[in-house]
Amino acid sequence: MDALYEKKIGNKIRSIREKRKITQEELSAKLQVRGCDITRSALAKIEVGQRHIYPDEIRHFKEILNVEYDDLFNV
């Protein structure tokens, strides 16, 4: 995936997370419960575009944040 596009998706995840009043720690814990091994540090890197996002992770973000794929990808 294009680095600039990944950064935009990360920013979108952060924006949605903040609107839902979920901390990075809470979101990473919810991801880990689902078997998606993302630490708070890794989540912070995703949100600023310093870490790649994998397809299975995107699915978990969608479900936990209760959004559609379009909400994540239309940046």
Automatic annotation (TrEMBL):
SUPFAM superfamilies attached to this UniProt entry: lambda repressor-like DNA-binding domains (SSF47413)
UniProt cross-references to Pfam families, sorted A to Z: HTH_19
Gene Ontology molecular function: DNA binding
Domain HTH cro/C1-type: 13-72
InterPro entries from the UniProt entry: Cro/C1-type_HTH (IPR001387), Lambda_DNA-bd_dom_sf (IPR010982)
Protein name: Helix-turn-helix domain-containing protein
Organism expressing this protein natively: Hominilimicola fabiformis
